[in-house]
Amino acid sequence: MRLPTQYSQRTPLRFNITPLIDVVFLLIIFFLVASHFVRSEQTEPVELPLAGTGKIDIENSPHRLTVTISRDGSYFVGGEPLTESAAFQRVAELGQSAAAAQAEPEIRIRPDRLGQHGPFRRLYEHCAKHNIRRIQFAVSSEGGP
Amino acid sequence: MRIPSQRLRRGSLDNESMTPMIDVVFLLLIFFVVASIGQKPDALLPAAMAPGATETDMELPPPDPDQLPVTDIQIRLSQSGQRQLLIELNDRQVTGVELRERLTLLSDHDPRSRIILDVHDEVLVQQFITVYEFCQTLAFESISFAVHQPEPA
User: Fold this and answer.
1) Which of A22, A28, A138, B66 could form a disulfide with A110, with the two C-beta atoms 3.0–4.6 Å apart?
2) In chain B, which ranges are continuous DSSP H helix?
3) Neighbouring residues of A123: CB distance < 8 A, sequence distance ≥ 6
4) How far is it, in rounded angstroms, from Cα B98 to Cα B36?
């Protein structure tokens, strides 16, 4: 005769947290990678001019435009090639939007060190005409003077 | 009567326990590798512009830079036919070393002197930045860029 067991075979409830840790880390890594690609500006690779006194500024301003000027004098905004008039139009729009928001606009110019000064000069003159006073020149400190 | 007891056999977890640990270790590795990846931010040289202040075709009398005090210092950069950089300090041609020496003297005497950079279009950006950075390091209070109006057609 088989007697039923008096006590129920209780399997202790075990909460395995290992899959939870896996998922959490996967989520963190996903958002890290996603924000890296979203935040990093697609910039045209240029050889920045060398300067030893450049300062790194990680402040992010919503009214900031980064313009890259390649060696042949072409303008790039966000990795997108623009004509000179289109680039200047973007600068003007930045000035207008910042003025409407009563904020200070900022222009970052990334010129190629072996490019000519002409396109560079026209850009910062255009900025001055549109009352964009905060202009910064991107430089490289590697092998600086 | 002896009631057979069923021992709870503890399942051996030896073969399974390593896998989650390896997963977590690799995830930690990937996390720190990805977290350390980042673009090196560009170094920046500030160039604060005065609003709407453009000076066109400035005609400065060429004062002798050796005679102090000098309030306006015009530095003209251009290129010669052999694509060499020509530097003129108040209409007097100087070498790069002379420019540095004279600007250092002038900044020591009067840092309120106004630097006016007149850079021709064919000059390389690196050459302009080198001179501009040097003027900034000397802490001149005002560095302006000369603007030329386009000639009417």
Assistant:
1) A138
2) 14-36, 96-109, 125-137
3) A67, A69, A75, A87, A88, A91, A107, A109
4) 45
Q: Could you list the pLDDT tens digit for every one of the 153 residues in chain B?
A: 777 665 545 444 445 578 888 888 888 888 888 777 765 667 888 877 665 444 444 444 555 556 555 578 899 999 887 778 899 998 899 999 999 999 898 888 887 788 899 999 999 999 999 999 998 888 787 888 887 665 555
Pairwise CB contact (< 8 Å): B42 & A51:
no
**Token pair for residue A44?**
């045209």
A139 contacts in B (CB within 8 Å)? 42-45, 129, 133
- Quote the CA–CA distance of A34 and A37 in Å, as a whole number: 5
User: Nearest 5 degrees, angle CA A82-CA A83-CA A89?
Assistant: 85
Contacts of B39 in chain A (CB under 8 A): 40
